[in-house]
Amino acid sequence: MSPSFEIGILPNRPFADCVNLCDAVEDMGFGGVWVADSQSVMRDAYALLSVVGARTSRIRLASGVTNALTRHLSVLASSWATLDELSHGRAVMGIGVGESSVRNIGFEPDRLANLETKIHALRALMRGEEATYDGETFHLTWPKRAVPVFMACSGPRSLQLGGRVADGVLFQVGSEPSFVQYALDNIRIGAEQAGRKMEDIKLFMRLACAVSDDGDKAREQVKGYAAVAAGTTFATVPRNYFSDQLWDELAAFKSGYDYYEHGENLAKHTELLTDSIIDGIAIAGTPEEVVPKFQAIADMGIDGFVCPAGMEDAMAFIELFGAKVVPRIE
């Protein structure tokens, strides 16, 4: 079965433009939208998901990703239960420990043990059951169904936790097949610890991507989100998976990263993205260049790809990607 191709939306542009991009995702036959939640540098993810949920009829509506630090658990559960009701069961909660959303307000990312407890509590709340967290017990009076929870993972412990407890794993480890295998191996470890099978878990890969009939232009367009992915990969994937050159170049890049320019194509830190970093983290080029790279990863058993449309002309990317790449991946 062919993997689902879905689009990441970075609401760092006018709200109406974001809505139009989501409309195009449905029109072009993609499987869903994953909206970034980073309040300091982007428009509100939940407002966008609600508007898009009311305008569309088919695509998956997911956060790419939210966290349980900037919003109380009861608020998160109510938001997702509402979105699921609005969209007739199309909602998916993508959740992680927090990145720019928490760092830009002086917080540290959540601990994995806390996130595991919160995921269990969120599921209970969305089923209308009582949840206990931080010494308090509370519930919601109206939800009846637990929205599927996809956990954003990159490091070994988070990948294993996703394999133990999540309905799906959204992993971001770059485009090198060895990095992808590292992720799958750790998800399997977690699944086996919980007596689960890999078939029980949806395996989605978030991947920096850009496609253009001009390959050089595509490599420039991918830099905004490749910078995001490069920082995550460097911080979480074990050192022994990197060549010395790639490790040293990523270290220099990460030292200059500015979270207030998170995801921006024109961020100053994109100047530190070398060819080696782009090749190891992203897939960018002409349709003919990117199709075999996607196919090689799809053949590893991936259920879906989430490709953020962070470039300036995101509409052109969505249309070309949907027309000339997606139909060719088996």
Helix/strand order? EHEHEEHEHHEEEHEHEEHHHHEHEH
Overall pLDDT confidence:
95
Distance between the termini: 7 Å
General shape: globular
Query: Which value, in Å, is the CA radius of gyration?
Result: 19 Å
Helix residue percentage: 40-55%
Largest sheet: 8 strands, parallel, barrel
Q: What's the arrangement of strands in the largest beta sheet?
A: 1-2-3-5-8-9-10-13
CATH class: Alpha Beta
Named CATH architecture? Alpha-Beta Barrel
Q: Helix count, per DSSP?
A: 13
**Poorly predicted ranges:** none
Number of domains: 1
Number-wise, the strands total 13
The class by helix and strand makeup works out as alpha/beta
User: β content, as a range?
Assistant: 15-25%
CATH homologous superfamily name? Luciferase-like domain
CATH fold-level topology: TIM Barrel
What would you say this structure looks like, in words?
The protein is α/β, with parallel strands linked by helices. It has one domain (4-215, 285-328): Alpha-Beta Barrel (TIM Barrel), CATH 3.20.20. The chain contains 13 helices and 13 strands. It has helices spanning 15-27, 45-55, 73-86, 100-103, 112-126, 156-165, 177-193, 215-221, 223-236, 244-255, 275-281, 287-298, 314-324, and strands at 4-9, 32-35, 60-63, 66-67, 91-96, 131-133, 136-138, 149-153, 168-171, 202-206, 208-211, 282-285, 304-308. Strands 1-2-3-5-8-9-10-13 form an 8-stranded parallel beta barrel, surrounded by 6 helices. The radius of gyration is 19 Å and the shape is globular.
Briefly, what is this?
By secondary structure, this protein is an alpha/beta fold.
